Write a sequence for this structure.
């Protein structure tokens, strides 16, 4: 907050203090060494909660009025303050969520309700650690993680030979210490067992008691509780310790903590022993200076290992990590996000207007379909081979099914359902990066099973949630799945694949109803390739895709296509059906990316496709669901999935837009139906296409294959290379 004082006046409105005075009032206290002013409300101690809230609301209004503050930035560390501040017309509301306070002992019953209101109203949310971010990220569209920074210079005093705190001199070494609040988060039983097992060690606890009393503390001669000390004095205590302790209990109150003391201990040059707090393990577990232990025996062994460390062996790696944990860097990032929040919703990016076809006298090639295949080939032929291209599409836009647009609320949505880009091909990424920057995005999907939302593909988290298990290793999950699997000698259908892998119960839970809705067929009637695409995992990786590159076009797919097709050699005929211009013979060559059976007038009959309908809605809330896509495998639910697009785009907006996806038999062709008889029918059309060398059939519909977007791009680029080889050979002859 001291850094924010350089930009604006900062008032730190503290919790109320009971008073014997008959009226509420405010006290002002500048924080020593800063320009931050602490505002301490005093409330008559006999007033009830309603009277206190009314008084606090009035005192806050008085503060703003007396200091001429019309539209303040309200920054909340606790939802409990929101109750009396929600009426203020704020320039922006920041929720700095440092912990899951509702999990603490004696948490006020209204805290969860107030937090939900605060998150809904907040313009930006910060979390104090990765695990808390993971738990909250589905609740807000503008949420950012800021793990603890550290004042390295302050704590590094302990490395530079400063005298230890005087009250340590009488305590024998080695000394192992902790500072911080001592409450239900501290594993007192662990401390007692360690102290009794190693009477030659001095275990030193510095900090105030909260929600526990002196009688709750273990009585062991070498376990010392010294009480609270000033922040300025902490380096002197660290200077007298040999090992820094973080003996946290593993319970609901510590589930999301990201202790600030971890980097502080390390900055002081003290090795750390901690219980397995998730954020400590994730952020510091790889450092030699940080030992993780769960049981008393493990904790003692870890302390012994820490005592044996030589600073020169571990401090360089620690110092490299600490160098990236500057409060200045954190302030710069937070300040930028607050400034953006004050400015309101980020501006809508307007796309350039594409020109329509000028119908010049002749083209080298007509390309049918402005999706990935047609657009990539148009760009390559125009830019790399200097050919004149007419690109037509019966729709009035480019980008095919990847088309996205801003809806009436200004939210970027995918008109034809979610499109998530992922690939393992560096060449494809390099090519598309000519036309777009990228927003990193890893897709996660949940499945609605009763009142639960569990990861899909099935992983260890899914199994634990469904069966109330505590599988903790990949091997345990693998064994559980093996016990459920029902081996099938010959895998022919989608049903066979799933039952062989995970058994009939999980098949019915996740695959049977969803597949029947998606394809209009039972899995036993579909080729095994349909469900072979969906893996089952034994770890906790909840990403839907595991490709090396996962990202979304920064400004959307349509903008990427606009850039791709912005070439003088390309004319667009949008809203034009190829059937209406086919007889004009506009070019000697055609590249057709539409349905191959349609090109040939359905001569052998129509190829079966599955289509989709979408119901788009805009909701007056920031978040609708915790991830972009939630699947609904229950056959009684008419839709297969709900998509919330702001997860995909990263757009910040006070509202959110979603779509319900409803498979159907009729409509635009989306998915070729994988059955042997359909493959045989396509083969007839493919043979017929071979007799028409002047026409190339490319893309999903042109080759009756279900391709991912990157595969279509790869196919189009490969087709262009073959065209070049063919042309070069013809010229050489």
């Amino acid at each position: 907050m001291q850094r924010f004082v350089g930009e604006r006046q900062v008032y730190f409105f503290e919790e109320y203090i009971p008073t014997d005075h008959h009226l509420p009032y405010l006290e002002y206290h500048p924080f020593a060494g800063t320009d931050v002013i602490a505002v301490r409300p005093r409330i008559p101690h006999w007033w009830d909660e309603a009277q206190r809230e009314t008084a606090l609301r009035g005192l806050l209004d008085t503060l703003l009025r007396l200091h001429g503050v019309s539209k303040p930035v309200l920054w909340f560390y606790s939802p409990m303050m929101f109750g009396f501040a929600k009426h203020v017309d704020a320039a922006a509301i920041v929720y700095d969520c440092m912990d899951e306070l509702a999990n603490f002992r004696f948490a006020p019953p209204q805290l969860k309700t107030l937090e939900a209101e605060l998150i809904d109203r907040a313009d930006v949310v910060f979390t104090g650690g990765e695990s808390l971010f993971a738990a909250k990220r589905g609740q807000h569209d503008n949420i950012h993680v800021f793990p603890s920074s550290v004042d390295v210079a302050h704590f590094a005093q302990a490395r530079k030979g400063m005298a230890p705190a005087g009250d340590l001199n009488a305590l024998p070494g080695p000394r192992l210490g902790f500072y911080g609040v001592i409450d239900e988060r501290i594993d007192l039983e662990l401390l007692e067992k360690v102290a009794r097992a190693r009477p030659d060690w001095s275990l030193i606890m510095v900090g105030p008691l909260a929600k526990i009393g002196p009688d709750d503390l273990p009585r062991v001669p070498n376990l010392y509780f010294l009480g609270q000390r000033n922040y300025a004095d902490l380096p002197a205590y660290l200077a007298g310790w040999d090992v820094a302790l973080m003996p946290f209990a593993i319970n609901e109150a510590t589930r999301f903590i990201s202790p600030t003391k971890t980097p502080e201990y390390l900055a002081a040059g003290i090795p750390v022993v901690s219980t397995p707090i998730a954020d400590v393990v994730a952020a510091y577990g790889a450092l030699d200076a940080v030992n993780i232990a769960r049981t008393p025996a493990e904790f003692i062994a870890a302390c012994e290992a820490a005592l044996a460390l030589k600073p020169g062996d571990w401090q360089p790696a620690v110092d490299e990590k600490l160098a990236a944990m500057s409060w200045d860097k954190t302030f710069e990032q937070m300040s930028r996000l607050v400034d953006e929040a004050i400015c309101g919703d980020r501006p809508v990016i307007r796309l350039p207007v594409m020109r329509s076809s000028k119908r010049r006298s002749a083209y080298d090639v007509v390309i049918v379909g402005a999706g990935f295949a047609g657009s990539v080939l148009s760009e390559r032929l125009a830019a790399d081979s200097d050919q004149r291209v007419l690109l037509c599409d019966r729709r009035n836009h480019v980008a095919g099914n990847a088309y996205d647009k801003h809806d009436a609320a200004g939210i970027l949505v995918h008109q034809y359902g979610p499109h998530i880009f992922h690939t393992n091909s560096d060449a494809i990424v390099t090519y598309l990066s000519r036309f777009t920057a990228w927003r990193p995005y890893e897709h996660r999907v949940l499945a609605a099973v009763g009142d639960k939302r569990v990861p899909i593909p099935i992983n260890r988290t899914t199994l634990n949630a469904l069966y109330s298990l505590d599988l903790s290793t990949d091997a345990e999950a693998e064994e559980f799945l093996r016990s459920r699997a029902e081996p099938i000698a010959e895998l022919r259908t989608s049903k066979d694949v799933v039952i062989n892998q995970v058994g009939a119960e999980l098949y019915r839970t996740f695959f049977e109803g969803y597949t029947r809705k998606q394809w209009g067929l039972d899995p036993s009637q579909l080729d095994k390739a349909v469900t072979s695409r969906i893996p089952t995992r034994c770890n906790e990786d909840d990403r839907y895709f595991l490709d090396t590159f996962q990202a979304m076009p920064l400004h959307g797919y349509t903008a990427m296509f606009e850039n791709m097709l912005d070439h003088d050699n390309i004319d667009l005929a949008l809203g034009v059906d190829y059937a209406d211009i086919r007889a004009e013979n506009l070019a000697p060559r055609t590249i057709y990316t539409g349905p191959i059976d349609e090109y040939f007038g359905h001569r052998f009959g129509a190829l079966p496709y599955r289509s989709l309908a979408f119901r788009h809605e805009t909701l007056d809330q920031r978040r609708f669901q915790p991830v972009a896509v939630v699947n609904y495998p229950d056959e009684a639910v008419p839709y297969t999935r709900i998509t919330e697009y702001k997860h995909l785009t990263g757009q910040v907006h006070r509202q959110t837009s979603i779509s319900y996806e409803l498979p159907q038999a009729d409509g635009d062709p989306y998915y070729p139906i994988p059955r042997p008889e359909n493959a045989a029918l396509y083969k007839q059309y493919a043979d017929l296409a071979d007799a028409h060398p002047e026409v190339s059939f490319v893309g999903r519909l042109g080759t009756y294959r279900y391709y991912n977007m990157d595969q279509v791009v790869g196919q189009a680029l490969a087709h262009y290379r073959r065209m070049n080889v063919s042309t070069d050979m013809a010229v050489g002859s």
Notes: The radius of gyration is 32 Å. Residues 346-353, 729-733 have pLDDT under 50 and may be disordered. The CA atoms of residues 399 and 561 lie 6 Å apart. The first helix runs from residue 49 to 66.
